[in-house]
């Protein structure tokens, strides 16, 4: 199993650990300390040795930050994690904060005293975050204090060791472009801007540029590494040699110089000397690194990570690989859904469902000679009231049976060498209420609206987001998460900068892969989400139109539960899309399924619906 169901949250230690942190304030000369979820690499998934927020508070969500002062202990989370936060922390110690509407830089001027001194670990915060905090503290004559060490690391006496996952080569058949060509393109871009070098701090960008993959963090196959790429054409990779075996080391020797991670500060200082102009992404790089450049007399030139957009706009090999991975994954999902539907209600638990789906993926992977490398995130397997917790993680303590009359939501994904998948299906276990069917159908309408959207060049994710919500809004309901996130190519399942969300301002470009996942959640009762992955097609002329329009192509093929659809709520266009999607699903997946009973189930699950 790639997923553990053990209870990892430790709220019982929150009071003691917060007291230990506060006891250090006086010696550090601070009035408060900020504890982000992020690690030194600013990634969503962090190694066990960097789970400082979870260690301190008990909260294990993938996004959040805690502000500890002498009188407050606030954990800021977004709408996905409000319920989880309440369940995982000692509420006599911690209070919840709003990461979207009142994040720490907004909270501080409203609640902190005059002259407040906020301590941070400069390796755990980006330059953009530091600017926001400094501006906020200036409003109350406060100060940001950059600490020489992280006080939590001295309290965390049994902190796990740093990971040493093996590095492998991503072959050209999957990557589509040679690493030397990617490096040359970046170097030429630096020359054009009169820059000496680019500091690459995002491990996914390092992996994509050099066509390598790793296993340092859960579910995201990149090695924890940074790089400096020079306009002159050289590249330096800061990666522990214990992670590279003979083949990988020989490969890397041909395209870059491999140095130990501890060598980064010295090489960065050398690049910055004599006014060296270094490109740094302020949303990705730790403030500590930009501080080194400035202290050595260099110039920090803020701009996008040069791999960010090229990585997001998949080439033909990456799109084709993803499409093949999704067909394989769809066959595994069909096998799983058949098993679930033919199991007697009340006999399957949430954990058993997650285990079965992973086993289906593994079996199909073996049969198709494209093994399951990992899951792309911990499977969200929730029945009834648990489905209303957007990022529910089932544990041995929370596990329950899936009963008749309930909705069951399973959000999962896989990592294959040729692609990353992410799919959510909500199914009815036996007969469910008309109210649940109504809301399911409204969610489906939003998903279809995104699937069928056509839009001009320049359209951003925020422009499309309302399409997924309008049917829900008309019914007086909404969902508290984005409609879609970017997805990598055998990399992170959550990849920027592309998104479909209220605040998503990145232009949507051909080749970008996104999720399409509207939902509805009634706390304490049920939750609904339907998710496919889609990619952006090149613009096409529309008959009778004035300009070419971009559109989406669906990657995910798996039946949507027809028993939950109230056909009378669908327009003819929506119903045609659903029937066509099911016909395509049947045609694409049937050749991959050899069991007679499962084939019959797929046939029935994709039958046409009519008004």
UniProtKB/TrEMBL annotation:
Q: Where does the Peptidase M24 C-terminal domain lie? A: 548-607
Q: Matching CDD domains, A to Z?
A: APP
Quote the Pfam families the UniProt record gives.
Answer: Creatinase_N (PF01321), Creatinase_N_2 (PF16189), Peptidase_M24 (PF00557), Peptidase_M24_C (PF16188)
Q: Which GO terms describe its cellular component?
A: cytoplasm
Q: Name one GO molecular function term.
A: metalloaminopeptidase activity
Domain called Peptidase M24: residue spans: 324-537
Per UniProt, residues of the Creatinase N-terminal domain are 17-139
Statement: the UniProt record of this protein carries the keyword Endoplasmic reticulum: no
Q: Which UniProt keywords apply?
A: Aminopeptidase, Hydrolase, Metal-binding, Protease
Q: Which InterPro entries does this entry report, sorted A to Z?
A: Creatin/AminoP/Spt16_N, Creatinase/aminopeptidase-like, Creatinase_N, Pept_M24, Pept_M24B, Peptidase_M24_C, X-Pro_aminopeptidase_P
Q: Which family does it belong to?
A: Belongs to the peptidase M24B family.
Q: What is this protein called?
A: Aminopeptidase P family protein
